[in-house]
Amino acid sequence: MKVYKDKKLKVSLFLLPTCVILVTLCVILSIFNIVIHKYISAVTSKEMDNELKEFDIAYSSYNKKYEYLDENGNEEFIIPINYIIIDDEYNLVFPNEPWESIREKNRTKAISNFLKDNSIVYKEGIINKVKIEGNTYYIKSKIYKGKYDGVFVSKDSEEKDFNYIVLLYANITPIQKFLDLLNKILILLMGLSGFMSILIIFHMAKKIDTSFHKLKSYIIKVGERGNLSELDNLVYTEFNDVAKTVQEMSKMISQVEESQKQFFQNASHELRTPLMSIQGYAEGIKSDVIKNKKRAAEIIIKESEKMSSLVNEILFLSKLEVYEGNVNKELIDIKELIYDCSWNIKSIADNRKYRI
């Protein structure tokens, strides 16, 4: 048989909802971040794929490259996408001097150096999220074999072709900072809502515990058959229903006790009647008042049998209180019962000159 460890209701009512709330808030926050990052990654990857298609066209038709890129740039995309070109030894090829700004120089060299250090991890055609010198980027690369002429790579039929890696990157640092701020706000709001929920749950658990203790004390008082006063109205309907049920049970117990008391009073009266009859006939025999002693002895024996039968019936009724089987019922003739009772007390009535 499995033994369960005792647990307090108040503790269970407090801990279980609290754990559910905290876990739910963590799951919501996690799902929110996963969905947001998946969306940004998918949109960025799609835009990078569009850029690579333009590069593929430029790679195949070098003369149309500049016009195509100018007409179909990524201006409509919220995250600007840039690219660098490095050779197969991960040296930066494009952009190069003269630099548009020191920021561009530092950024492109940092990215090329990072790719050189992580060339095995970041493979061709796969978008990756990386953090470089405090900035967050999405990067995707593709290898073109050809000749670099100072701007891009074009196909060349000569055997002097080299492999060049075109690396597309999107700086999502502003978005990442916004998401970090949003996460902090969400964590703060969820923490406040969780704290308020815990306070409410604690208050409710305390009220339930108080109502339960009142109900427990009332039930103990009922069991001790103490003086029952009207129970205060409890907070929850279920406890009030239990209290009403206990009150009804108490009334039923009182009725049973009253019935038992009445039964024993009746039984005492039923025992007193044959005793008086036996006593009367015995005294009559002793004082020679009754001449027919044989008849008197028969009545005494019959009254004794009646007493014995009554005692047996009392014992039988006592057994019925704990008996759970089927009771065999029997029909009796009420006229015969009345006749037997009247005959048993006829001698007493005759002595007192009563007519039955």
Automatic annotation (TrEMBL):
Keyword annotations from UniProtKB, A to Z: Kinase, Membrane, Phosphoprotein, Transferase, Transmembrane, Transmembrane helix, Two-component regulatory system
Cellular-component GO terms for this entry: plasma membrane
CDD domains: HisKA
EC annotation from Swiss-Prot or TrEMBL: 2.7.13.3
Broadest EC class assigned to this enzyme: transferase
Signal peptide: none
Signal transduction histidine kinase dimerisation/phosphoacceptor domain: residues covered: 259-323
Membrane spanning stretches: 12-36, 185-205
Molecular function per GO: phosphoprotein phosphatase activity; phosphorelay sensor kinase activity
SUPFAM superfamilies: Homodimeric domain of signal transducing histidine kinase (SSF47384)
A biological-process GO annotation: cellular response to phosphate starvation
Domain of life: Bacteria
Gene3D superfamilies linked: 1.10.287.130
Catalytic activity: ATP + protein L-histidine = ADP + protein N-phospho-L-histidine
InterPro entries reported in the protein's UniProt record: BphY/WalK/GraS-like, HisK_dim/P_dom, HisK_dim/P_sf
Listed name of the protein: histidine kinase
Organism: Clostridium perfringens D str. JGS1721
Taxonomic placement: Bacteria, Bacillati, Bacillota, Clostridia, Eubacteriales
